[in-house]
Structures are given as C-alpha cells and as structure tokens.
Write a structure and sequence with these properties.
- The protein has two domains: about 15-145, Jelly Rolls (Sandwich), CATH 2.60.120; about 160-240, Winged helix-like DNA-binding domain superfamily/Winged helix DNA-binding domain (Arc Repressor Mutant, subunit A, Orthogonal Bundle).
- It contains eight helices and eleven strands.
- The protein has helices at about 15-20, 40-45, 125-130, 135-160, 165-180, 195-200, 205-215, 235-240; strands at about 45-50, 55-60, 65-70, 75-80, 85-90, 95-100, 110, 115-120, 185-190, 220-225, 230.
- Strands 1-8-3-6 form a four-stranded antiparallel β-sheet. A four-stranded antiparallel β-sheet has the order 2-7-4-5. Strands 9-11-10 form a three-stranded antiparallel β-sheet.
- A hairpin with a 2-residue loop joins strand 10 (about 220-225) and strand 11.
- Helix 1 packs across helix 2 (about 40-45).
- Mean pLDDT is about 85; it is low at about 10.
Length: about 250
C-alpha cells in the first residue's frame, strides 16, 4: 500500500483527559506530578464534581475514603467544638488537595463558601497510581508537610500576634495565593464573611471590621466591595504581618 504523503494518525484525547489538560489548577496541585502524556491514567480515576455554596463535601469523623482536589472556588475547613460551635482552621482554594488523613477518618469538615469545582479521587484507585508515578507520592508528601507548616503558623497567629498582625497576615496570605494563581491584579477575593474571617483569626467581627477600616484610612488597602480587597502596599502589609511594622498597635 502506498503511504507516501500519508499524515500521522492523531489520537483524539478523551473528554476527561482534555479536562485535565485544560484545568487551570493543574500547575499548582499534585496533578502536575504526572506528565501530559500520562494524564489519561489520572483522568480515568478522577470524578469531576460541582459543590454548591453551603454544601459539605468532607465531614469530620466520617470514613476517609476519598481525596479531593479543588479546581475553582473556595471552601472553609473547620472542626466542631464540644459545645457545638465551629472553629475554622483554614480556607482552601484552587489547587488545594484535601483528604490526607493519619487515621481512617477525616479530621475536619470542608464546606463550600462559594460554588466549588473539584475532582474526587477514590483512595484505593489513587494509591494504585503511586507505584507507577513515584513523583506523585512525593507531591502528596509535600502536601502533608505543607499542612503541618500551616497548622504551626495558625498556632502562632492565634497565640502570639496582635489583632493588627492577624488581619495583615490573613490579607498577605490571600494576596500570595492570588499571585500564585498567576493573577497580576492586586485585588484579592474575600468570598468568606467577616464572621468567618473573625472565627479563623480568633477575633470579634467588630475588631476585624475596625482593623480593615484602619488599613483603608492609612491608604494601604481599599475595599471596592464586600467580598474583595485591593492591596495598595503589599510590602507594608507583609511588614505588619511579620511584626516589622513600627506603627503602634491600636487593638
């Protein structure tokens, strides 16, 4: 058979694999441990799912049978106190990998505070990939280490920092995540309520609002809307967050 001038056969990517290739969170998540040519293996075990605002997708104490990789949106992570109150321990956004547990149950609850898109991975199926993709196992270990560092930073935040430093630390962290997502804008999304920010920082709603207003009056931030803040002076904000700012604390 004459094959002169024949064009190479291009194998179409499956919809699931195409979804992985086009995913904006891939570069920041554990998924980037797998090369594009092997993404079909990852796509085969990933179950895309949309979580509506207010919906819980990880529940503290339930059997830890799945992992979750957030691709868009934000979720709050919290633990239940004996008296029934929530203690928010963090916020997870695009690229965050959730579900790592040292026991057979989840250690926290995850609830969407805006619409969240994620990929759900069955633990047995994802573990089956680790033998073939050791870099994936390394990334999972890095994620676990990052969670430990975040827990230590949260202890410092609640135990040692002033209210001014806590709010600055929170804004600086959100700004760093925004820059990490490749966005040049100094506008940072705040999809969480002031009450949720206060709970996370161990402050009252009034203190959080007063501190944000003070930062605004000093010309360091602006508040274009209730769910957004513009960082005018990132360097100053980082200085306050790390305690290097010489401005006297007011709260």
């Amino acid at each position: 058979m004459n094959t002169l001038g024949a064009r190479p056969v291009v194998v179409a990517k499956s919809a699931a694999t195409a979804h992985c290739i086009e995913c904006g969170a891939r570069g920041r998540s554990v998924c980037n441990a797998i090369s594009e040519r092997d993404l079909d293996r990852l796509a085969a075990v990933a179950v895309p799912k949309r979580i509506e605002k207010g919906q819980v997708f990880i529940e503290e104490g339930e059997a830890a049978v799945d992992f979750f990789n957030i691709t868009t949106g934000t979720a709050k992570l919290y633990k239940m106190l004996p008296d029934g109150r929530q203690q928010i321990t963090g916020f997870a956004g695009s690229g965050h990998f959730l579900g790592l547990a040292v026991s057979d149950t989840y250690a926290f609850t995850a609830e969407a505070i805006e619409t969240v898109d994620l990929c759900r991975f069955s633990r047995p199926k994802l573990r089956a990939l680790l033998d073939d993709f050791p870099l994936l196992e390394k990334r999972l270990l890095e994620t676990a280490c990052n969670e430990l560092v975040a827990a230590q930073e949260q202890m410092l935040l609640l135990g040692r920092k002033t209210a001014r430093e806590r709010v600055a630390s929170f804004l600086a962290s959100r700004h760093t995540e925004t820059v990490g997502c490749g966005k040049r804008s100094e506008r940072v999304a705040l999809p969480m309520t002031r009450a949720e920010i206060a709970d996370y920082l161990g402050l009252t709603i009034e203190t959080v609002s007063r501190t944000l207003t003070r930062f605004k009056s000093e010309g360091k931030i602006s508040l274009p809307s209730r769910d957004e803040v513009e960082i005018i002076d990132p360097h100053w904000l980082l200085g306050v967050a790390t305690g290097e700012d010489s401005h006297a604390a007011f709260v």
